[in-house]
Specification:
Structural class: mainly alpha
Largest sheet: none
Number of strands: 0
Distance between the termini: 46 Å
Helix content: over 70%
Radius of gyration: 15 Å
Number of helices: 7
């Protein structure tokens, strides 16, 4: 069995990430029976992302798993996956995704600690001329409550 070239794996990773995020975004608007199927599809794509074994894909999978956990009301898992995603996304210098994950974690935590994370994310995004950080967060990290 021949191994795919790395550029094909990178494209596969991005496409799985897009599909996963679309499923999570659609699930927020779907009727309950469809919501469950969409969240399950996102979870399956997150597993596929992880299996690619590429650092960026694993980090995106963790962010997606956080959205899945949030969709299912599992706040502890949501926070754990967001913390992992932030670390991984920072490692591969995917700063806009890391900022979105920080923003989501801040919202989940609440209080002063949560506000500090959201302020840090907002500050980074605004320094990059992102005028509406909440919309960027919705794009990079859909599927969350709140």
């Amino acid at each position: 069995m021949t191994r795919e070239p790395q550029n094909v794996q990178i494209i596969r990773g991005w496409m799985l990430s897009f599909r996963c995020r679309c499923a999570l975004a659609a699930a927020r608007q779907a009727p309950n029976r469809d919501r469950i199927a969409l969240v399950n599809a996102a979870e399956a794509d997150a597993r596929r992302l992880e299996r690619l074994g590429m650092t960026f894909a694993v980090a995106l999978a963790q962010l997606a798993r956080a959205g899945v956990a949030s969709s299912r009301g599992d706040q502890a898992q949501e926070r754990e996956q967001l913390a992992r995603a932030i670390k991984g996304l920072d490692t591969v210098e995917m700063h806009s995704f890391a900022a979105a994950a920080r923003w989501r974690l801040g919202l989940s935590l609440g209080g002063q600690e949560g506000q500090a994370l959201r302020d840090r994310a907002d500050s980074w995004m605004r320094s990059r001329a992102i005028r509406n950080p909440a919309r960027m967060v919705a794009l990079h990290a859909p599927g969350f409550h709140g």
